[in-house]
Amino acid sequence: RAAAAPEITGPMILVATRQLPVGTIIGPDSFRFQPWPKELVEKAYFMKEKTDVNTLVGTVVRYPITAGQPLTQGALVHPDDRGFLAAALGPGMRAVTVKVSQEQGVAGFVFPGDRVDILLSQSVKPDQGSEGQLFTSETILRNVRVLAVDQRTVPSTSEGQTTPEVFGTATLEVTPQIAEAIAVARTSGGVLS
Known about the structure:
This protein has helices spanning 84-88, 176-187; strands spanning 12-16, 31-35, 60-61, 76-77, 94-99, 115-124, 134-149, 169-174, 191-192. With 193 residues, it is mainly β. The strands form three sheets. It has a five-stranded antiparallel beta sheet with strand order 5-8-7-6-9, covered by helices on one side. The chain is elongated, with a radius of gyration of 22 Å.
């Protein structure tokens, strides 16, 4: 019969609950506190008694973190820190900001880290002799990651709660080719939603 592992009674530190690749936007389910052997605790670790976890929600992972590994202060970038956008973007990706209305923004229920589809809506001139105006809409992008809404990348309440808010812009992570397609769609008189 195998002996039970000794119970760790050291200080509580913050560890990743799952693998966190570079560019991951941290949510409340990304970490938990767990006891850690006192002799292995480093100054860069987030200690339970000194950490307000609400300030970590919305940060971005700068270096890969494996499940169960301690989170360190240098591994996370805050939205107002230099290098935030570089850490948030995947390799070769670009950030593009698009205007959205309340209806286009799903009434404020889109948050950083969510994935959305982008539609192009346009009015089309009818054939000669036809009356009225025709409208068309097509999905031009699927499964695009939202980096920020307006300039916010973190929840809006001090408790870290995600409350719906109307916003006017969304910053998206796209490839260079998709960034070009969005620029063309904007100049063609279409509306992105």
